[in-house]
Amino acid sequence: MKQIWIPKHGTPDVLEVKQATDPTPKEGEVLVDVHFSGINFSDILARMGLYPDSPKKPCVVGYEISGEVEKVGEGVNGNWVGKQVASLTRFGGYSSKVTIPVDQVFPIPENISLEEAAAMPVTYLTAYIMMIEQARLRKGDTVLIHGIGGGVGISAFQLAKIIGADVIGTASGWKHESLRKMGMENLIDYHSEDFVERTFEWTGGKGVDLVLDPVGGEYVRRSYRCLRPLGKVIFYGFSSAAPGKRRNLIAGIKALLSVTRFHPIGLMNQNKGVIGCNLGHLWKERDKLESAIIQLVTWLSDGLITPVVDKVFSFEDASNAHRYIQDHRNIGKVLLSPKL
Predict the structure, then answer these.
(1) Which of 77, 155, 182, 200 has the fewest CB atoms within 10 Å around its CB?
(2) What pTM did the predictor assign?
(3) Nearest CA to 20 among 72, 68, 58?
(4) Residue 186's domain spans which residues?
(5) What is the per-residue pLDDT across 74-115, written as a single tens digit (0 to 9) for each?
(6) Angle at the Cα of 160 (from 300 to 296), degrees rounded to 5?
(7) Which of 92, 190, 155 is nearest to 300 (CA)?
(8) Is 67 a member of any domain?
(9) From edge to edge, which strands make up the β-sheet containing 166-170?
């Protein structure tokens, strides 16, 4: 099988494609022939040496895949063989073959492609956990989504529409036309506009009920300012710590130092909440993840959510895939494929 390795910290050029022996499924596992692997910003931070949860280098990362079940381990029903599935992977997803516990994979609805399925697990689960489990977003609420043109951003927008919430989104100006075609209306160009001012303009000075923020750094204070009483801000990333393609500890420290600290009394007096979300730390919450996946697959099958794939790169072109994301050129999900 083929795998994309991170041999050491560095720029996208450090990524290497290597051959390895095909894995054998153990008891309770299935072997999946991978067609597509999803790229997430945590993979990029891992490559740069800025992701604490990353395995020690050298390593193979990757949190999600789609493909076809090739073999099953002991105790697994043989009917799984030949089924098209998608799954979260606790690293190792940048591989052409992966073994996964059978209770971690889910069959793909017949009307959904493997490409679309690979764009779903991490982004939609993250959006679901934040908006439905943590924030309890309701019909008529307003949510500000930073980076609405990315994988999680588009997923969050689609879930907000299902819930009946109003949406404000930040994205580079050149993305706005494409995003409007997806139904997004209240868009802010964070390069040329103050998102705090624009948010209060669109909400009649009230602020929003929820902010989804993957940036961190100085955005922490400004996102918090956008909240109305009883509002919540959820942080699910820290992209401000990686402004370039090479590890920069000074930039990372500056981003950390710029983060606003919240005192319990201040939070009580303002009736606001600050929450964090890290899907990678929810592996033991199988019941919540399973119920979320069941609901998402139902919405997917019913056409209520539509994964958006921006571009697919070959394994051999993985370095350019990482550059593509770090240059903020994508609208939707970026995938890798060992089949190209």
Answers:
(1) 77
(2) 0.94
(3) 58
(4) 123-280
(5) 999 999 999 999 999 989 999 999 999 999 999 999 889 999
(6) 25
(7) 155
(8) yes
(9) 186-188, 166-170, 142-145, 208-213, 227-235, 273-276
